[in-house]
Amino acid sequence: xxxxxxxxxxxxxxxxxxxxxxxxxxxxxxxxxxxxxxxxxxxxxxxxxxxxxxxxxxxxxxxxxxxxxxxxxxxxxxxxxxxxxxxxxxxxxxxxxxxxxxxxxxxxxxxxxxxxxxxxxxxxxxxxxxxxxxxxxxxxxxxxxxxxxxxxxxxxxxxxxxxxxxxxxxxxxxxxxxxxxxxxxxxxxxxxxxxxxxxxxxxxxxxxxxxxxxxxxxxxxxxxxxxxxxxxxxxxxxxxxxxx
Length: 244
Ligand SMILES: Nc1ncnc2c1ncn2[C@@H]1O[C@H](COP(=O)(O)OP(=O)(O)OP(=O)(O)O)[C@@H](O)[C@H]1O
Known about the structure:
The chain is of the alpha/beta class. It has a domain of 65 residues. It is 38% helix and 24% strand. The protein is globular. The site of adenosine-5'-triphosphate (ATP) has 12 residues, from strand 2 and helix 1. This is ABC transporter.
């Protein structure tokens, strides 16, 4: 369970978050929806302890990431727009390196690499070096690294950007399997179709504030609007940042 209460974060004169509160439950995929600049990435970075909040509280299964970021990261996978691949390492070497950093080793690590490669449909690039990888191939490798150590919590910043149809499907089924395993997944996205098909719960933020939280159906009921996209626009008051 991930909980935030009244979280605020300021960068100089810019108030990135001005009071965000929500709960993301285990075994649920929670979408983080908001226009560009709403504060989604800032929130994810606070949850994993990469930034310190100015105000409020955050609990990751009872642990405050500002107090014990290492304990939080042990059970967390984070996908951001910084993929951090090494051009000269093959995908398998790269994943083995990160697996070892997470205390994995030997045949069980290799078996887990094969499992994740199957899950994300990326066997074709497993033995290739990263130099020259396309955007979609890069994001798959970064995702594989994120999932490798079977984290209990997963924070994904726009995970499907740059993925083709088959890879998007592979990602969705991988996330479905993680949900079944009881993983707590928070996913920032602009893709409404993804939210409708995949997410159990939605947190809407705008201008650094939580505007609403609930299932897609609850948000539609609350606004009295049948389409989630239109309900979102009505909640945030802008059409900016939506991908149909
Ligand atoms: N390190 C920083 N220094 C200054 N301002 C920042 C910094 N990081 C974020 N901001 C500002 O905080 C606000 C929230 O940014 P953030 O990246 O969290 O938004 P976002 O919801 O992820 O946006 P997008 O959908 O465009 O990715 C923006 O106004 C942004 O310019």
